[in-house]
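Feature request disguised as a bug report, sorry. It would help if multi-protein outputs had a clear separator. Right now it looks like this:
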Amino acid sequence: MRLLVFYDGHCPFCLGWVRFLLRRDRADRLRFASLQGDWAAGFFRANRLDRPDADSMLAWDGRRLHKESGAALRIAAALPWPWSWGRGLRVLPRGLRDGLYRWIARNRYRWFGRHEQCQLPQEGESRKILDQTPASGEEFLP
């Protein structure tokens, strides 16, 4: 099963996370779309979902939109060992996990800066970036 990861395209920290995931997605399970991009707007409209603010990384598994720490755990589960161990953090109370996630999200621009325009990762994996190759994301549309 593929997992669709939405990220803040203006955030250098988020883009670094996307690059990290691109390098480790050996099973070709992940696809990516910037929350500010046209592809994401079309996805949320087609699936009759409210378009969220860009303050959280999200993960769509084909049935449900995961957010905050739930999205991070879902993404970790899609990675190979040793990175998949991150899903074990679900033993922590959700309030604690989401609180830590929100703290990082609130401070990410102060710590890492902000791009004025959406920056797309250029990792030679453009087929995984739906903003660059929209046709490859048809499996996520109803």
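(second protein starts here, but nothing in the output says so)
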Amino acid sequence: MNREIFTQLVRKELSGLRRFLLAACSGNGDEADDVAQEALMKAYVASPTFEDEAGFSAWLYKIACNCLIDHQRKLTILGVTLDIDKANDVAASSHTDDVFAYQGLYHAIDGLGMSERTAVLLFYMEDRSVKEIATMMNVAEGTVKAYLSRGREHLRNKLINNQSRQI
């Protein structure tokens, strides 16, 4: 794949990839941009050997998922955790009201494990099929279904708990 084709394909995927990573990073735009930049760099370096243009989207998301996992591991090793109050401050101070409007969703998603979070975001926000997600995450389709089931249950419980605290 040449540079021009790579650029065209990335342009088609960029907004969805950024939306996915922003949600996966609990609304932290800087963190999402860092992961996206790393994924795009790795994809570009590997692009000369990639020839399946039809499978480009799944290939790019797979790289992004792996970069997201690596990023999360680095944060865990460094002992960095996301303080949900700080996430509110980041969103409120550095972006428009659009980002703040999604903070309830980010709070609920933040409680999910990385595998559940990735599967839920790809399935519901990016409209990816179970088969595509399995390819992206490098797991069996049944595993993706389990992640989605557990993720929905965890989100349901978290949202119910948040509603009862507000009442």
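Even a blank line would do. Unrelated, but nice: The chain has one domain: 3-166.
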